[in-house]
Amino acid sequence: xxxKPFTYVSLASRVVFGAGSVAxxxxxxxxxxxxxxxxxxxxxxAASVKVIASSLGARYAGLYDKAVMHTPLEVAQxxxxxxxxxxxxxxxxxxxxxxxxxxxxxxxxxGLPVLAVPTTYSGSEMTPxxxxxxxxxxxxxxxxxxxxxxxxYDPELTLGLPPATSxxxxxxxxxxxxxxxxxxxxxxxxxxMAEEGIRALAAALPAIVRDPRDANARSEAxxxxxxxxxxxxxGIALHHKLCHTLGGTWNLxxxxxxxxxxxxxxxxxxxxAPEAMARVARALGAxxxxxxxxxxxxxxxxxxxxxxxxxxxxDLERVVKIALEAPYPNPAPVTYDGxxxxxxxxxxxxxxx
Length: 353
Ligand SMILES: NC(=O)c1ccc[n+]([C@@H]2O[C@H](COP(=O)([O-])OP(=O)(O)OC[C@H]3O[C@@H](n4cnc5c(N)ncnc54)[C@H](O)[C@@H]3O)[C@@H](O)[C@H]2O)c1
Known about the structure:
There is one protein chain. The chain folds into two domains: about 15-160, 3-Layer(aba) Sandwich (Rossmann fold); about 165-350, Dehydroquinate synthase-like - alpha domain (Dehydroquinate synthase-like, alpha domain). It contains 13 helices and eight strands. It has helices spanning about 25-30, 45-55, 75-85, 95-110, 165-180, 190-210, 215-230, 240-250, 255-270, 275-285, 290-300, 315-325, 335-350, and strands at about 15, 35-40, 60-65, 90-95, 115-120, 130-135, 135-140, 150-155. The protein has a six-stranded parallel beta sheet, sandwiched between helices. The longest helix is centred in the middle third of the chain and has 23 residues, at about 190-210. The radius of gyration is 19 Å and the shape is globular. The chain binds nicotinamide-adenine-dinucleotide. Nicotinamide-adenine-dinucleotide (NAD) binds near residues 70 and 165.
């Protein structure tokens, strides 16, 4: 490994990991010194989240169950009003990146601490970054207040995550690890986590697709997602930019979009980041990074084409224009023609060459 100069920042959060660990929820709220918790969920998960919240007893202030993907600004403002009306002094986000993102949005303006109980592999719980949409454009903001103070990783809560959602979400986590290996802030500590995150997820996801109730695979995938979330703080590159553009402006499903674009974005960077590519390939147990990712996704039964997600070929030029208006730093130079060619291959779902 070539050791280049680097800066490493570790972010403070408390992680409680293990099957059954959600039983510690009330104790963890007490540990934060909070007394009135606003519990957050998506509409579809409200019933099961209420069951989890019942362990809070008098600490339960209420449930806000309108979390949606890409956190539209209006939803964030509505949730902040509810938090204030209930006189909440902490938020408990039980769910995937959408629910955790809403908790962060509340924290940003109110300063309320967030306790996250992730039930997907988005990794959002380990970052002080939040994506929100306003007027059809997705933007990201970063503020230390948004980093969840406590994260409870209970793999038992993921046993019901459907195999297709698990596979896509796991690839979203792998995408964080991959870009952390070549992001501007890459450093040796995060590199270790990124490679291990890819290894854990690539081993666990096929087992989960075979048997979604495989407890060991669920634990390993959640462990990989934790590592992936930590690596996300290192920075991101072209792949995440394209997915934010597609997700925010075309309202595409976040994790599924990551899965489709990842092999193509990695292929785009292949020659500019050879060391990172070698690590990705090694972690996947594949000959080469881009094709290894593509083949893993085929094995997981994921959708492989942007056209499968409803993107029309005629939209691709607009995606490139929006993505290039404020591009992220990227190992390979980001050019209009290059990115358009990348998206055309992703649109058709071609195996990277
Ligand atoms: N800021 C960050 O660091 C970061 C990182 C990754 C993702 N995100 C954001 O997170 C959002 C996407 O998150 P996501 O991919 O986790 O999707 P999500 O949170 O929308 O969850 C996907 C679906 O799965 C359901 N679900 C969640 N857990 C379940 C379970 N255990 N069993 C059954 N169903 C379950 C949800 O109700 C939802 O319908 C996007 O808005 C994205 O921008 C942010």
